[in-house]
Amino acid sequence: MHYDVIVIGAGSVGMAAGYYLAKSGKNVLLIDAFDPPHQSGSHHGETRIIRYAYGEGAEYVPLVLEAKQLWEDLAEASDKKIFMQTGVLNVGKPDSDFIRSTISSANDYALPLEVMEAEAIQQRWPGLTIPEYFTGCFEPTSGVLACEEAIKAYRELAERHGATLLPNSKVSDIEVKEHEVTVKTAEVTCQANALIVSAGAWSNEVLERLDLELPLTPVRKTFAWFDADEEQYNHQLFPAFSFDTDAGMYYGFPSINQAGLKLGRHDGGESIDPNQSIQPFGEKLEDQTDLTQFLHQYFPNVHELNYGKTCMYTQTPDEKFIIDLHPSYSHVAIAAGFSGHGFKFSSAVGKALSDLLISGKANVDLSPFAINRFN
Ligand SMILES: Cc1cc2nc3c(=O)[nH]c(=O)nc-3n(C[C@H](O)[C@H](O)[C@H](O)COP(=O)(O)OP(=O)(O)OC[C@H]3O[C@@H](n4cnc5c(N)ncnc54)[C@H](O)[C@@H]3O)c2cc1C
Q1: Are residues 164 and 152 in the same domain?
Q2: Cα separation of 247 and 354, whole Å?
Q3: Domain CATH for 252
Q4: What is the pLDDT along the chain (375 residues), one digit of tens a residue?
Q5: Which residue in 321, 11, 42 sits closest to 154, CA to CA?
Q6: What angle, 0 to 180 degrees and rounded to 10, lies between the N-to-C axes of helices 147-160 and 346-359?
Q7: Do 28 and 160 share a domain, yes or no?
Q8: Residue 334 domain boundaries
Q9: Is 203 domain-assigned?
Q10: 208 and 226 together in one domain
Q11: CA 235 to chain centre
C-alpha cells in the first residue's frame, strides 16, 4: 500500500500527528509495536501535569500555550474529559532555577501566577508542611491531563478521518529514497511520500535504519499512589505539584476520583534497554524509600503505599526535546527525547510535525529543539 505519510510510533506524539495529518486530508498509516494507549512506553499512569509558566525555560511557553488550545479542541471534538483544572503548585528555594524560571516565564507571557510564602501555602493547603525558607508559586489555570484518554481520543478521531492504525506491529526496517520511504514490519511492507519517527524510548533503534544516532538515554522511572485523606487531598481542593528540593525534584497529583495521592521523582533513574523487561516497582529498595522520605517531610499525613508502577523517560543531555527534520531527508520528521516532561506538549508537537511535512513550516518556533545543537 502507498500512503502520504507513515508514522512510526503512535504514542503520545505520533497519535496526535496522525490525527492532524488525517484531518488535513492526508492518507496516513500509523504503526505501533503495541496497541496504544498501552503500558509499555512513556504514556501510561492515567495523568500528566500541564503547567504554562514553565520552570524548564520560557522558550517552551509558546509551544505549551498552543498545546493548551489543542487539548481544549480535542476535548470538544471527542467529547471526552481531557483536562482537569486543579492548578499546579511549584515549591522550592527562592534561588531555585526552576522557581525563578517559572516566575520569569509568567512575567514574560503575562500568565497568572501567585507567588506565596511558606506560611501562606500551609494555611491554604493544611495537608502540607513547608520549611519557612521555601517559596511557592501557584498557577491556578494549569492542572492535569488524562493522558491515556487523550491518546484514545486522538486514535478515535484519526481513524474517523480515515487514518489506518496498525497496532502490535513493530517496524523492523526502513528504506529511504529521495521522495519516498519504504517501511517494513514482520507482516507488511508499505510506501509513503513522507515519514514521522516518534518512537519514544525506541527512537534510536528506529533512527539507526535512517543512519542517524541521537544522544538519547532511556531511563527507568517509578511512581506510586498513596492512600490519602480525601478531605485534604481531593482534586477539588488540592493542586498538582512540583517540588524542587535538595533531595531531588518531585511531582505529584491530588487524589482524583479517590484514587489516592500520586507521587513520582523526576530526577535520577537507571538507564535501561527498552527491549529488556523492566524491574517492576518495588524491586529496588529506593523505589519506595525515595517517595516515602519525601512524603514524610512535606506531606506528613500521607503514609500508606497503595501501589506503584514503572515507566520510561527518554533523556537528552540538556533535557530539551528534539523536534526537527532528519538532517539528510526533508521528508522525514523526528520527535524524540522528551526527557520526562513532554506529554503536555504532545498535542502541539503532533500538530507541528504535521505542519512541517505539509507546508514545510510549523506554527511555533522549533529552533530550541533542533538536532544541530548537538553538533
Ligand atoms: C512516570 C512518568 C511521569 C511523567 N509525567 C509527566 C508530566 O506530568 N507531564 C508531562 O508533560 N510529561 C510527563 N511525562 C513525560 C511524557 O509522558 C513523555 O514525554 C511522553 O509520553 C513521550 O511521548 P512519546 O510519543 O515520545 O513516547 P510514547 O508515548 O511512549 O510513544 C512511543 C511509541 O512508539 C512505539 N514504537 C517504538 N518503537 C517502535 C517500532 N519499531 N515500531 C512501531 N512502534 C514503535 C511505542 O510502542 C510507543 O507507543 C512523564 C513520563 C513518565 C514515564
Answers
A1: yes
A2: 40
A3: 3.30.9.10
A4: 899 999 999 999 999 999 999 999 999 999 999 999 999 999 999 999 999 999 999 999 999 999 999 999 999 999 999 999 999 999 999 999 999 999 999 999 999 999 999 999 999 999 999 999 999 999 999 999 999 999 999 999 999 999 999 999 999 999 999 999 999 999 999 999 999 999 999 999 999 999 999 999 999 999 999 999 999 999 999 999 999 999 999 999 999 999 999 999 999 999 999 999 999 999 999 999 999 999 999 999 898 999 999 999 999 999 999 999 999 999 999 999 999 999 999 999 999 999 999 999 998 999 999 999 998
A5: 11
A6: 30
A7: yes
A8: 2-44+148-215+320-369
A9: yes
A10: no
A11: 21
* Residue 176 and residue 278 share a domain: no
Query: Which residues are tagged catalytic?
Result: 44, 47-48, 262, 266, 311, 344
Cα 342 to middle of ligand 1, angstroms: 8
Distances (CA, A) of 375 to 14, 212, 213, 214, 371: 26, 13, 12, 10, 8
Domain assignment of residue 307, yes or no? yes
> Does 308 lie in the same domain as 241?
yes
Distance 38 CA to ligand 1 centre (A): 10
Pocket mutation for ligand 1, best pick of 19, 35, 190, 338 (most atoms within 8 Å of C-beta): 338
Q: How far apart are CA 321 and CA 214, in angstroms?
A: 11
- Does residue 211 sit in the same domain as residue 222? no
Q: How many domains does the chain have?
A: 2
Domain shared by 301 and 190, yes or no: no
Task: Specify the ligand 1 atom closest to the Cα of 199.
Answer: 34
Q: CA 352, CA 358: separation in Å to the nearest integer?
A: 10
